[in-house]
Amino acid sequence: MNICKKIYCRTFQTALRAALPVLPYRKPKLLKSTSCLPVLFRQKNIQRVLLITDASIRGFGITKPLEKAFRSSGIYCFVYDRTVANPTSDNVEEARMLYLKNSCQAVIGLGGGSSIDCAKAVGARIAKPKQQLADMEGILKVHKRLPMLVAIPTTAGTGSEATLAAVITDSKTRHKYPINDFPLIPHYVVLDPEVTRSLPKSVTATTGMDALTHAVEAYIGRSTTAETRADAIKSVQLIFHYIDRAYQDGNDMKARSNMLRAAYLAGSAFSKSYVGYVHAVAHSLGGRYNIPHGLANAILLPHVLEAYGTAAHKKLAELAAAVGIHASFEQQAAEEFIQAIRDMKLRLHIPDVIPEIQAEDVPALARIAAKEGNPLYPVPVLMDAKALEQFYYAVMEEKNEIRTYPQHRIRTETVFQQRHHTAS
What we know:
The protein is of the alpha/beta class. It is built from 16 helices and 9 strands. The strands form 2 sheets. A 6-stranded parallel beta sheet has the order 1-9-6-4-2-3, with helices on both faces. β7 and β8 form a beta hairpin. α10 packs antiparallel against α11 (about 295-310). The chain is globular. The termini are far apart.
């Protein structure tokens, strides 16, 4: 990246960081169970709600108890269950029309980040009916109060329930873009581990790694606050303690509950401190190939952390110490933390490659990632599109080399076992 672009990016990021104390961030009100919602809506005189989810969630019967509770309370619940893995502008418009047709008064996003992001975008379109969704791409382009918005995460990963962001894919162009504004922060969040009980192991793994990516990128960036650093560290600690338990036993409600809390804390951290190039690259892959976001983040995370080099060593060493990895030197601690992430991926059976990537697509994908990341993301090391190409090639099937460090694996596996025993 040329020096003028670097100066522009850092100036932009410095200005945003200086504005943090006066920007209207808020945290959602937390509820412990979906059973709280009928009471809440009666208190708010809300009688008609739109529930946004996906076909799998509804097919598993996860929405049935809530739908039944609403019926028993005399609340009409209309369900949109066609949300796809990377929610599209068509999803948003279909759900919006259902909301308007039935004169709804509130929106509930129940599911992973896709359903919650779709619910946020529906709220934005309801608040601004004359503005197209694509025109809201970027920062602070909604600026109108949304209908009551409730988020019920069924995965412990995206953190969307705590953030001011929604990520949408244009149905025609397949361009995946973020919308960032304070009204998109949900008014209420339900952290109910029961709705995560039936998650497949693979989803538990990739969404948990998604939360880890949020926490790590928020922590190592250059726009942190004391609050976001504390949230990020606690999130990383909870994930290192509980992700394996949640993966091995989906009925371990203590693990499930703490993973939900970790995802929420990570979302709170990156809502203020932003993420980094892991997300920018992952978003481009999701838009082009429909790669699940958590999976892409998990595969890319160690590669990007390594590429930041010495600029990230100090903060990565701090995270290493927080999870029980101690080393004599910052570089060693940082490397062992990155290796611990690789070891986590191995235990969770997450692959090292994304076979869908085509070499001829890489330059265009890298330009999309660079446009998203620069100047917004306060990363340790600034990179232009050409530099970002390395990450696509690193995880292409024919290019990938699986690197292991046995001496680190033994050490971090021992630390993990000790932490796991303590957490039990």
